[in-house]
Design a protein that fits this description.
Length: 258
C-alpha cells in the first residue's frame, strides 16, 4: 500500500516549522509498513494534486500568504476535484485562512481564498499568542488537543462549516465564540502550530486513517508505542493547569476527564 502526501508551498508557508506535520505523518505511516511518497507542490508548477491522498499547507507571513493566494486561485479547480475524490486536507494558520472565502487585512484589502471552508477572516488589533488546549471529537470520546497559536486574524464560520474543536484554553478562531479551527467533510483548518501532529499523535493517526479510506482501507492499522508522547502530553497539561490555577485534567487514551 502506498500513501501520497502533497505538501503545498513548503518554501513559502513554513513560518513555525509546520513541515513537521508532514514528517510525523510520513514516520507514523512508515512505522506501520505503509509506503509513503511526499510530493512537493510549489507556486507556478503543474502538479496534479488529485493524485494525493492527503494535502498539507502551513502558515506564513503576509507577503508569502499573498503570493500563495494568487497561485491557489489558478490551482483551485484541481484542489476542489481532489477533495471531491476523497483527498484529506489539513491547513494551518495562514493556510487555514486561504481555505476560506477571504482574509481582510488591516487596511481593508481582501485577499481571496478558495472557498473550501465557509469562513472568512478579518485582521484584529491584538495578536492571540500562547499555548492552546482544545477538545476535538475523533469519532468517539473527546480528545484533548494541544498546540500553539500566534495570529491576529479573526476567523468566523458560516453555516455549512462546523468548528473542528472547542477551546479550553487560548483564543482559537477569534477569541470570542470558543471555537477553534473548522471542518467541512475531509477539509480541516486550524490555527494550532506545535507542530500540531507532533503534540497530538492520535490526531495524526486519525488523519492517516481518513486518508487510507481513500484507498479502500480504514484506520484499523496497528497501534504504536506512544509512551513517551503520552508522558509529554501529561506533563504539558499539568504545566498549563498550574499556570491557570485549574485542576489538571487526564489526557490519556479515550479523551478528557475534568
Amino acid at each position: 500500500m502506498k500513501l501520497t502526501i502533497g505538501h503545498l508551498y513548503p518554501d513559502l508557508l513554513d513560518l513555525y516549522s509546520d513541515r513537521g506535520n508532514v514528517m510525523i505523518l510520513e514516520k507514523r505511516a512508515r512505522w506501520r509498513g505503509i509506503e509513503v511518497e511526499v510530493v512537493r507542490v510549489d507556486a507556478g508548477d503543474a502538479t496534479d494534486v488529485r493524485g494525493c491522498d492527503l494535502l498539507l499547507m502551513g502558515g506564513g507571513m503576509d507577503r508569502e500568504q499573498s503570493l500563495v493566494a494568487r497561485d491557489l486561485q489558478h490551482r483551485r479547480a484541481n484542489v476542489e476535484q481532489a477533495v471531491a475524490e476523497g483527498t484529506v486536507v489539513l491547513a494551518i494558520c495562514g493556510g487555514y485562512q486561504l481555505l476560506g472565502e477571504y482574509f481582510e487585512t488591516g487596511s481593508g484589502e481582501r485577499i481571496p481564498g478558495i472557498g473550501l471552508l465557509d469562513a472568512y477572516t478579518v485582521a484584529g488589533e491584538r495578536r492571540m499568542v500562547g499555548n492552546v488546549m482544545a477538545e476535538c471529537p475523533l469519532d468517539g470520546p473527546m480528545e484533548t488537543i494541544f498546540g500553539y497559536e500566534n495570529h491576529s486574524g479573526r476567523t468566523y464560520l458560516r453555516e455549512g462549516t462546523d468548528p473542528w474543536m472547542r477551546v479550553v484554553r487560548g483564543g482559537g478562531n477569534n477569541g470570542s465564540d470558543g471555537t477553534e479551527g473548522a471542518r467541512k467533510g475531509r477539509v480541516f483548518g486550524t490555527y494550532l502550530h506545535g507542530p500540531l501532529l507532533a503534540k497530538n499523535p492520535r490526531l495524526a493517526d486519525w488523519l492517516l486513517g481518513l486518508a487510507l479510506e481513500r484507498k479502500g482501507t480504514g484506520g484499523g492499522f496497528k497501534s504504536l508505542a506512544d509512551r513517551w508522547e503520552e508522558a509529554a502530553r501529561e506533563h504539558l497539561v499539568r504545566r498549563l493547569a498550574e499556570l491557570d490555577g485549574m485542576e489538571s485534567p487526564h489526557v490519556g487514551t479515550g479523551g478528557t476527564k475534568k
